[in-house]
Amino acid sequence: MSTIAADASSFRDPAGHVYQIDGRVFRTITSRAASDYEFLRQTDFLLDISERGWFVGASEIDPSVLGTVDEEVRYVVEHPRIPFVSYPYEWSFPALKAAALLHLDLHLEALQHNVNLCDASAYNVQFVGARPIFIDMLSMRRYREGEFWLGHRQFCEQFLNPLLLRAYFGVPHNAWYRGNLEGITAIDLSRMLSLRQKLSWNIITQVVLPARLQRTAIVKRPDDLKKLKQRRLPLPAFRGMLTQLRGWISKLEPADTSKTVWGDYDRTHSYSSDEAVAKHTFIDDFVSRVKPALLWDLGCNTGEYTETALDAGARYVVGFDFDQGALQAAFARAKTKDLNFLPLYLDAANPSPDQGWHLAERSGFQSRATADAMIALAFEHHLAIGRNIPMGKAIDWLIGLAPTGVIEFVQKSDPTVQEMLTLREDIFDDYNEENFSSLLQQRARIVKSETVSATGRKLFCYDRA
Prior knowledge:
globular, 3 domains, alpha/beta, seven-stranded mixed β-sheet, Rossmann fold, 465 residues, single chain
């Protein structure tokens, strides 16, 4: 008998919840949201945004598929499954920007159909490759004449302010956002802005004034706050507000545009052309043999070898890197070439944990999916030497991610490792190929190995099954 699993992240909305059965994804619609859903069905809005690729899609089915669930269900819809769920604190700057622009475009289109979005959570957006897609149909409801944008504060905290943190100060949003799952408040961002920055009209209207209102709300009486909630906003002004925000966000770029540590690696690495060909061939042969539905590329850099894996038969690749420049280039590659490739931020020594309410609302890095295969090229030395992770523990973690994969071992004499050791003591007495190979063999079968560079870099294909 199939088990019905309630999605731990969808408990907040009384309008309905998400359930999973055997990999299928269902959303319930309760009496609370039934009239708005019925209105949506009468419009062509859902069909319009689905055809544009903005919405995940939804097919109404018989509610009996869920049996008896503990809520008053009026309707049930089935959504296509997203290949891999990601969160805003794992997105690069261009990914967060693309998600923000999608949300605004969707909202503007919704108003054309007399539909409004009642919230503006960044968690309502997912990615298929580099393409953002909206997933929460319960945040769509009939527009009420003159209503204010109740999701404005949420949009600013979860989209705009994290983007401004990078655009104005060159500080990536990832760590702050992961520490505060609701984003960055106007009060916090306002404290960082200079007087000159605060003189910008966009900053005044979207950061300074909201921060002042939030401070005022702390000391205002309930009756005064009720009046704020009842304020009116004409539809043309509503559209103008969204359009102005869209124009501003579309022009935002990171302030730290200088060269990053690994952002140019695929163009400046020490491989000769023949060595690069050998490495690509090894990956091609591995992926052609395994044909993984989901491949993880650890240390994906700009996606050069990800693309090789996709060409060789990998259906979908989630790449991980900690270098912001590399992630931006990888996202651009995925977007320009329309690849089934989603590059995400990851500090492998501190991966995303289970967190949120009851430590279940936002699943950790390893809880969300099981990869069929993984590749970790020029990666293990960042753990073993860069972060002092004992080699055995690093190998345990790596091969625990997928039943088969490719790990590149970088010799201590390699220029990259020597550069890492320049300003620190070499305490890594057991960091050598013989020890690496021995530790790997204790945990998995080495299917194949090959030296692919003049400096002795070696690829190991393992199979732990």
